[in-house]
Automatic annotation (TrEMBL):
Origin superkingdom: Bacteria
Family (UniProt): Belongs to the KHG/KDPG aldolase family.
Oligomeric and partner information: Homotrimer.
Biochemical pathway: Carbohydrate acid metabolism
Keywords: Carbohydrate metabolism, Lyase
Signal peptide boundaries: none
Name of the protein: Bifunctional 4-hydroxy-2-oxoglutarate aldolase/2-dehydro-3-deoxy-phosphogluconate aldolase
UniProt source species: Pedobacter punctiformis
Amino acid sequence: MISNKHKILDAILEQGMLPLFYQDSEEGSVEILRTLYKAGVRVFEYTNRGKSALPNFKKLKEIRDAEMPDLYLGIGTIKTPADAHAFIDAGTDFIVAPIVNPAVAEIANKLNMLWIPGCMTPTEISVAQENKAMLIKIFPANILGPEFISSIKDLFAGQLFMPTGGVEIDATNLKTWFKSGVCAVGMGSKLISKEVIAKGLYEELFDNTKLALELIQQSK
């Protein structure tokens, strides 16, 4: 059952944040997902960044279906049609990419599935729009900065943008991003750090996730 892309987009906008991570351990991946959910996350991106991504994703979907029926579970780092098909077969709710691949967009659009491509230039944004991207990931946002969004948003009136990379759990940082014109932020290692993953610091992750969600609601 593929979820409606408008509902998922609305959920991302309401949450204001899309948490994302990958780790090799299935057990660790499940614990992080449970921790994020407990802290209030209802839309989440697992990333296709290692050999265990597909089996781990299948396990996460099993846990989601059993324990978290109101969670949207998506897959990130999808660069090829083959990857897209593999994770669609595994039951992903939406697709995130670091690049614009029109062939992946076509697959997602045929299924009425939300596809969030990554863009770094106005030309890439234009190509993403031609391929019906409702939400565009600005990546790497730590290189481009909020000034990039401020500078280009009028060129693409009405387009929804989400920076990923370098977004911090910090009131000033978040306010600067939202003031620049983004509708949500992607949060990877600044939220789910290597230390959290390596040491299983789930209580710290729970607290930081709750704080991030609160700061984002205040920053919108």
